[in-house]
Amino acid sequence: LENKIKLIGIFSDEIDLDMLVESYQFEKDLKKKDIIKAEIMRKMSDIFDKKEEMKLEIINNVEKNLEAKRKDFSKRKLAKDDILKKDLEIMLKNIGRMDEEDGK
Predict the structure, then answer these.
(1) Mean pLDDT for the stretch of residues 36-55
(2) Which residue in 49, 68, 69, 84 is a FRET match for 100, CA 20 to 30 A apart?
(3) Separation CA 90–CA 14 (nearest Å)
(4) Which pLDDT score, from 0 to 100, does residue 99 have?
(5) Angle subtended at Cα 103 by Cα 97 and Cα 104, rounded to the nearest 5 degrees
(6) Distance of alpha carbon 22 from alpha carbon 11, whole angstroms
(7) What 3-state DSSP class applies to 104?
């Protein structure tokens, strides 16, 4: 939800930017054009910062998920024998059931 709100904010800023660019294009007064140009730069800077912050958050989330997967992998590697024994038991039970059903 937080990321969606941030994206909506970025889209809103980009709409504002488009409106500023239109204002700049239609403005005849050079002093006003300079003011609008400065506003465009500020808006572009804000949008850039927000996008970069979101990218960094995504990277941090990916890193956290990878770390969790690494820990899980290490645990599974240590528990390999137990996991394989359980899987073998399940497999043999299923084979036994299939043999019983074939015999019926």
Answers:
(1) 96
(2) 84
(3) 56
(4) 76
(5) 95
(6) 17
(7) coil
Rounded CA-CA distance 61/33 in Å is: 42
For the record, the structure tokens of 44 come out as 């572009």
Q: Which residues of 44-70 are buried (b: 16+ CB within 10 A; e: fewer)?
A: eeebeeeeeeeeeeeeeeeeeeeeeee
The two tokens of residue 34 are 């300079």
The 3-state secondary structure of 33-87, one letter per residue: HHHHHHHHHHHHHHHHHHHHHHHHHHHHHHHHHHHHHHHHHHHHHHCHHHHHHHH
CA 36 from chain centre, in angstroms, equals 34
Residue 41 · residue 17 · CB < 8 Å: no
Distance in angstroms between the alpha carbons of the first and the last residue of the chain: 55
Residue showing tokens 């299939």: 98
Amino acid letter, residue 10 = I
- Specify the pTM: 0.64
